[in-house]
Amino acid sequence: MTFLPCTNEASSESIASSPKRDTMSNFLPDSSCYELLTIIGRGFEDLMVVNLARYKPSGEYVTVRRVNLEACTNEMVTFLQGELHVSKLFNHPNIVPYKATFIADNELWVVTSFMAYGSAKDLICTHFMDGMSELAIAYILQGVLKALDYIHHMGYVHSQPYPDFRRWEGVPLWPAK
């Protein structure tokens, strides 16, 4: 995900005033606590591998995004730092929060909830090969638009509201007007 702070007057809403979800406190930042089960995606110029994993202490299935930091340029590392910082500020039911972020063996690990049905693209390819009804499309878009509205009200612009949320690629950003 890519975010850029807005500079308009409407963005003066305080980030600090929003209640925080206590999501990261229950997941240990230790790679030995996660059993990587299978690869379910790739991204970030093929430097990121997305795994289905099991969090050993609770048995919960999670998604682990692992980015090879040794292969990243300095600009990529700076980009990732900014993304992680900004993303941790968000608290919205339509934005998947991080459960843990840490470095293990020169890899950045980002742990999130496992979304069993995958992305909207996965749903379409698996269950709606002949298309979706307008109602189903409206339901999916409503959730995306609520999240984008929240991000805009927090003073940021998301650069890629794509159906495949596993992609992490830098795209030019423009302040909201």
Automatic annotation (TrEMBL):
Pseudokinase which, in complex with CAB39/MO25 (CAB39/MO25alpha or CAB39L/MO25beta), binds to and activates STK11/LKB1. Adopts a closed conformation typical of active protein kinases and binds STK11/LKB1 as a pseudosubstrate, promoting conformational change of STK11/LKB1 in an active conformation. Keywords: Cell cycle, Cytoplasm, Nucleus, Phosphoprotein. It comes from Anas platyrhynchos platyrhynchos. GO terms for biological process: protein export from nucleus. GO terms for cellular component: cytoplasm; nucleus; serine/threonine protein kinase complex. This is STE20-related kinase adapter protein alpha. Belongs to the protein kinase superfamily. STE Ser/Thr protein kinase family. STE20 subfamily. PROSITE patterns: PROTEIN_KINASE_DOM. Its main location: cytoplasm.
